[in-house]
Design brief:
Chain lengths: 210, 225
């Protein structure tokens, strides 16, 4: 993939979309073969790959009994960065959680958790964003936020690998779309309509945020 | 940022969560007090007998209580995607082990700070003259217990029968630590501060160093597998 481009992964449940993202994030070790992220081998140099990649999972890597700000603070420390209150406040404002920055995450709705998980990708510099079902659990504003963040990633040259069942601007505007079938990735021709491979409606059908 | 900075971030996060929820500490203190109370009740008012077996009883309490702490070591991570959440960050994975290890040591030492005085009262033993020796054996024994326990709790965290597997794997590996700790505690309580007790403390220290080297060396491999 060229830097700053997006590959959207589609495919039925169990096709291996999450597995592929976890392989690229080096959370799983390839049983055979290898892959490279910016020239770094997934097998031989996983730490360099982790430095470059950020993974957004369906649940997010978040702690219920830490506040939103503390979760981002922990993310920065674990990523080897010096926690910066200004950066954390800026990201919380960007994801619309600035007013609940000091609330424990266990009080958050699914959508708010998803926003915070997205915020974890924004507090540290990454070259490759791995987004697993980024729209799930989000209202229309949250879905727009995902689209904006993906757009910003592309502007700064961050490559995006996105697995989604739901339609959204980031999915439609992806430079490439790949369908995973039984572990094999096939890049779809531009003429093939993407909607055939998406199971859930787009932002128009999503509920508005309270 | 170094391994120690990332380890410290994990300690900070775990202790902050524990300070807010008090899930582990309350359960551990209650359980340890219950074990000591049952033993003192079962053995009756024979002060001499109680003082003779106090070292063993104390470490039975610490071992079972420590098991509670160990089984919760990675429980906090479950809401955040399990160990994957920590593994997704760059840096040496040994930071995860060190962070969890330090957290376990702090938790167990806090419980022991309650447990030892409680044992003194229940077993009618004046522990104050032996405080230095008891602190030394508690620290060395707790480090040894936590070194092995933190390693095995990482190995068993994804097993369905982890509550069964953890003690099955852990207690055989803990025999040298428990043997040293029980012997040292008993000898210290008998007033043997300079003789055999020191030898057992050295043995405990040696086990701690050996376990530290082995666990820190193979933890990344165990985590990958």
């Amino acid at each position: 993939m060229e830097p700053g481009t997006t590959l959207c992964l589609v495919g039925p449940n169990g096709a291996g979309k999450t597995t592929l993202l976890k392989l690229v994030a080096t959370l799983l070790r390839p049983s055979s073969g290898d892959g490279h992220v910016m020239g770094h081998s997934l097998k031989r140099d996983p730490d360099a790959v982790r430095m470059l990649t950020g993974l957004l999972t369906v649940r997010g890597f978040l702690y219920d009994d830490l506040s939103a700000a503390e979760n981002l603070h922990f993310t920065m420390r674990m990523a080897g960065l010096k926690p910066d209150r200004g950066v954390i406040a800026g990201v919380l404002e960007r994801i619309g959680l600035d007013e609940v920055a000091d609330n424990r995450m266990r009080t958050f709705s699914t959508g708010m958790r998803k926003r915070l998980a997205l915020g974890q990708l924004l507090v540290r510099p990454i070259q490759v964003a791995l987004l697993d079902e980024p729209y799930s659990g989000l209202d229309s504003q949250g879905m727009r936020l995902v689209d904006e963040v993906v757009s910003e990633f592309k502007e700064v040259g961050t490559t995006v690998l996105l697995a989604s069942h739901q339609d959204g601007a980031a999915v439609r505007e992806a430079e490439k779309t790949g369908i995973l079938r039984r572990g094999h990735l096939e890049i779809l021709p531009e003429s093939e309509p993407l909607s055939r491979h998406l199971s859930v409606g787009g932002p128009a059908g999503a509920p508005e945020m309270d | 940022m170094s391994v120690f900075h990332r380890a410290w971030a994990i300690v900070w996060k775990d202790l902050l969560i524990e300070a807010r929820t008090k899930q582990s500490f309350n359960a551990m203190v209650f359980f340890a007090a219950l074990v000591l109370f049952i033993f003192s009740f079962a053995l009756g008012p024979d002060t001499e007998l109680l003082q003779r077996v106090a070292g063993g009883l104390l470490w039975v309490g610490i071992a079972f209580t420590g098991l509670l702490s160990l089984s919760r070591t990675y429980q906090n991570e479950e809401t955040s995607g399990g160990l994957e959440g920590l593994r997704a960050y760059p840096g040496d994975p040994r930071a995860i082990y060190l962070g969890k290890l330090l957290g376990n040591i702090v938790m167990l030492l806090l419980v022991e700070a309650v447990l030892f005085p409680a044992a003194g009262i229940l077993f009618q033993a004046n522990l104050w003259p032996y405080a230095g020796g008891l602190i030394a054996v508690a620290v060395l024994g707790t480090i040894g217990f936590s070194l092995v326990g933190t390693f095995y709790s990482a190995l068993t965290v994804n097993l369905r029968a982890r509550e069964v597997m953890l003690p099955l794997l852990l207690f055989p590996a803990l025999v040298p630590v428990l043997l040293g700790a029980v012997n040292a505690t008993t000898l210290i309580l008998q007033g043997n501060l300079m003789g055999e007790a020191v030898m057992w403390l050295r043995v405990l220290g040696a086990f701690d160093i050996i376990f530290f080297v082995i666990c820190i060396w193979i933890f990344p491999i165990a985590l990958e597998e």
